[in-house]
Design goal:
By secondary structure, the chain is α+β, with helices and mostly antiparallel strands. It has 12 helices and 9 strands. The structure holds 3,4-dihydroxyphenylalanine.
Length: 341
């Protein structure tokens, strides 16, 4: 009997359990009711008294080893089952992706950038959390200048020298401080103002800024560039007009209107029956601003312009409510599956 048990222990140790079939075979051989170990326990009764202690110990060792091995193998199989079962049937079709589209603001922005890139403008960027210098002071907004109130600013409460930029004009300063003319840049981006949220205004929106600085840049250069822009954006028939305006950082300053593309200048609801739509602010960069950035205004001059993107996108894609742009509703984006820009 001792020899049988001994050889069974050896057999058990060498038994390979790598498949479900081998696991079943192991159970049949060692641990099932009808397996060899139970038989041995049956015949233990007839073992002579003096051998009982030794044989009993060996039998228990055999049994413990068998169950330990069985449990270890089962544990591994369970784990494998979990990892192999989760992906279920890999031949089944997968879950469909919810398809969005390119955001209308991004499309308008891309189109504008493309138009200006054709004539040599390059994209520049600056931080959305700005300091007073770049957002106001360097742009010729003097301390207590009423124009600072034109833009309801979100200040950082811990240090009001920092604020959320109210316009992309701050990027003009960042570029002029670090680059030498000729400078020809575009600054697209998000800006923030403390305004009540409604269908037509929001506390954050988007602008595209342009800046050109070189020797002998004139107001006529600006007009021609803006006309090129209007025709590229709105079609060959587009006309522009410039109205005198005021910005601290430009002298002279103007507001540019484009002829309403919906009524072709006849007057309609969209242009409030004027035939014109206000598109952007622009002007010749104020010599003080050039000086603030270390550029000699006796040698260089330039023009700048800035336009809001959100209203342009509303008009282009007939989006009735500005808030839709930031509500993250995929149903809006799904309407723009066809990427135009
Ligand atoms: N920064 C102005 C605003 O947000 C827009 C603007 C006007 C930008 C005139 C310009 C400019 O570059 O020349 O209202």
């Amino acid at each position: 009997m001792q020899e049988i048990i001994h050889s069974l222990i050896q057999e058990l140790t060498q038994f390979q359990i790598n498949t479900q079939g081998e696991l079943d075979a192991f159970k049949t051989r060692f641990t099932n009711k009808k397996a060899v170990i139970n038989d041995l326990f049956e015949s233990f009764k007839s073992v002579p008294k003096e051998e009982k202690r030794v044989v009993g110990q060996m039998l228990n060792e055999l049994k413990t080893k068998a169950y330990e091995k069985l449990e270890a193998a089962q544990e591994i199989f369970e784990k494998e089952k979990i990892t192999f079962q989760i992906p279920h049937d890999l031949t089944l079709p997968g879950d469909a992706f919810v398809q969005g589209g390119r955001h209308p603001l991004a499309m308008v922005m891309n189109k504008l950038i493309h138009i200006f890139e054709q004539i040599g403008f390059e994209v520049a960027s600056g931080p959305e959390i700005e300091d007073d210098w770049h957002n106001f002071s360097a742009l010729n907004f003097r301390e207590n200048h009423p124009a600072r109130d034109m833009q309801d600013t979100f200040f950082v409460s811990l240090n009001p020298d920092y604020l959320l930029r109210t316009h992309t004009s701050s990027v003009q300063i960042r570029v002029m401080e670090t680059q030498k003319p000729p400078i020809r840049i575009l600054a697209p981006g998000r800006v923030y103002r403390n305004e009540a949220v409604s269908a037509r205004s929001h506390c954050f929106f988007h602008q595209l800024e342009g800046l050109y600085i070189d020797r002998n840049v004139s107001f006529a250069d600006m007009q021609q560039t803006l006309l090129y822009f209007a025709k590229s954006m709105f079609g060959e028939n587009a006309k522009i007009r410039l109205r005198p305006s005021y910005f601290p950082f430009t002298e002279i300053s103007a507001e540019m209107d484009v002829s309403c593309q919906i009524c072709e200048g006849e007057g309609c609801g969209v242009c409030k029956h004027t035939g014109w739509l206000e598109i952007m602010g622009c002007g010749m960069v104020d010599p003080n601003v050039l000086e603030n950035c270390g550029i000699d205004p006796d040698i260089y001059s330039g023009y700048a312009f800035g336009m809001g993107i959100d209203r342009l996108a509303m008009m282009t894609y007939k989006v009735p409510d500005l808030r839709m742009f930031s509500q993250n509703d995929i149903r809006l984006l799904r309407q723009f599956e066809k990427i135009e820009f």
